[in-house]
Design goal:
Layout lengths: L4 E5 L13 H8 L5 E7 L6 H6 L22 E5 L7 H9 L4 E7 L4 H11 L3 E10 L4 H15 L4 E2 L1
Parallel strand pairs: 1-2, 1-4, 2-3, 4-5, 5-6
Helix pairs in contact: 4-5
Length: 162
């Protein structure tokens, strides 16, 4: 059986504001409690649905928005993603090779990337455990709470640590 795994979702400069700033020191501190750390970084490519359908152009590769806003541990693995979810075949393969049965999730945004990633882990048979105090939404606390409510409904209340 593998050691504990944490996935730090999209703690990036462009998502850090007054609603999310508290997450940065929390994720830096909790890394020492985990054997494996994955840090995701959202990049908005030129032909993305965000650009095409919403005219949202932030988080281009190389932009300040897309940079991580925390200091990942030396052994952290960085996962670059172009969609809401961090769950992809390569990550699933790595987790299964290590016999990972559960992952702890924290980061930004509870109501978007973290929510969708948790549901994807759940649907792939890996228990997602959400560290609610280490999560936030850059749209505000009502979105964070809405995300937690949806997570309770979609993956179960036992998967939320408040």
């Amino acid at each position: 059986m593998s050691g504990k795994t944490v996935i730090v979702v999209d703690v990036q400069s462009g998502f850090v504001n007054g609603y999310t700033r508290h997450v940065v020191p929390v994720v830096e501190r909790i890394q020492s409690s985990y054997d494996r750390i994955y840090a995701t970084r959202f990049v908005n490519p030129p032909a993305s649905p965000w650009r095409r359908f919403m005219d949202w152009r932030r988080f281009a590769e190389g932009s300040a928005d897309a940079e991580l806003a925390f200091r990942p541990a030396a052994h952290a693995m960085i996962v670059v993603k172009h969609v809401y979810s961090c769950v992809n075949e390569a990550l699933l393969h790595d987790l299964r090779d290590r016999e990972t049965a559960e992952v702890f999730l924290c980061g930004i945004d509870t109501d978007a990337c973290l929510l969708i990633s948790a549901v994807d882990f759940f649907q792939n048979g890996i228990r997602p455990v959400i560290l609610a105090e280490a999560c936030a939404s850059h749209a505000g606390p009502e979105y964070h709470e809405a995300g937690l409510g949806l997570l309770e409904r979609l993956v179960g209340t036992d998967q939320i640590i408040r």
